[in-house]
Structure formats: C-alpha cells, structure tokens
Amino acid sequence: MYSAVSERFLRLVLEEDYRPLTDMERAELNESKTYLQNYYWEKEKLQAMSYLAYATEDDAWQQTIHEQVDRLNGQ
Hints:
Mean pLDDT: 93
Distance between the termini: 10 Å
Strand content: under 5%
Structural class: mainly alpha
Largest sheet: none
Radius of gyration: 17 Å
Helix content: over 70%
Low-confidence stretches: none
C-alpha cells in the first residue's frame, strides 16, 4: 500500500509543475500526504520503541515491535 500511495503522491506533485490539478487530483494529493505523514510518524515511533526494547534487553517487546513494523510494511 505504501508504495502505491507514495508513487501517486510523487506523480501528482510532479504533474502540478506542468498543469493545474483537478479537484479530484488535489483531493488525492491531500489524502496521500496525510497517509504518508501518518505512515512515517508510526514508523519513527516504532523505531524509537525498538531501540528502547533493545536497550532494556526486552526481547519479547522487541519481537512485538518487529511484528508491528512488518504489518506496517505490508508483510
């Protein structure tokens, strides 16, 4: 899902340099931006939590976090 959204977002940003976007494209651009902001927020949060789990040697917690990362990445 991430790659499809990011690809569409980039296409719309680049297309905007050549012509005005339609209302539907503008809505898609905004939705894609919101999705990507949420994705990266969650990814950064999980990375910070993973470091904490590593630093405290909490292997069970780190495994749980890795499973969440896998789900976030669509695996």
